[in-house]
Amino acid sequence: MRTVVLTMKASVIEMFLVLLMTGVHSNKETAKKTKRPKFTVPQINCDVKAGKIINPEFIVKCPAGCQDPKYHVYGTDVYASYSSVCGAAVHSGVLDNSGGKILVRKVAGQSGYKGSYSNGVQSLSLPRWRESFIVLESKPKKGVTYPSALTYSSSKSPAAQAGKYSCVIESKPELINTRCVLGDSREINILTGQAPLALAIF
């Protein structure tokens, strides 16, 4: 009789352990199913300016080759939103010319932006601009959801509509280079010296 009782106790314990393990396995499966989908990092080109992106903070992936001087950058550490996002990332040292992921955060406009040469990129000076941004390593903050798709501005900026502009004057021997920015839409170079006045719009 005692042997029968012990056998029954052993069977009950075995059943309890089986149910316990089944419950743990089931909870793990449920956790896997409810896991958040993987974040997709948007990709942008080297010529994309921060001012064209409406999102106040975002993570993007830059391609290789953004060190090219045709991708203009304005400022040092804090950049005018008229700058190339990826060009500024290379200038700041967060990225090299091979590209990669970065975190971009919009900040207030500055009364002036100082140009400098850094990491193979020559940034330009600008007297003032209404919006700025900084570039950081792509380490997401806890609890912050970053967009998988960026929102772009489709209309001209208020500055462009009002005809407001900023100019930078660079003096060189026998040449004065005046670089003007109209809103976010275009940049004008006025070259003066011994030659007749030349106006280039690009």
TrEMBL record:
Highest taxon of source: Eukaryota
Annotated ranges, domain LCCL: 40-133
Keyword Repeat appears in the UniProt entry: yes
Gene Ontology terms: cellular component: extracellular region
Keywords, ordered alphabetically: Disulfide bond, Repeat, Secreted, Signal
Subcellular location, record wording: Secreted
Matches recorded under SMART domains: LCCL (SM00603)
Signal peptide: 1-26
InterPro entries, A to Z: CRISP-LCCL_domain, LCCL, LCCL_sf
Pfam families in alphabetical order: LCCL (PF03815)
Gene3D superfamilies: LCCL-like domain
PANTHER family associated with the record: CYSTEINE RICH SECRETORY PROTEIN LCCL DOMAIN CONTAINING 2, LCCL DOMAIN PROTEIN (AFU_ORTHOLOGUE AFUA_5G08630)
Official protein name in the record: Vitrin
Organism: Saimiri boliviensis boliviensis
Taxon lineage: Eukaryota, Metazoa, Chordata, Craniata, Vertebrata
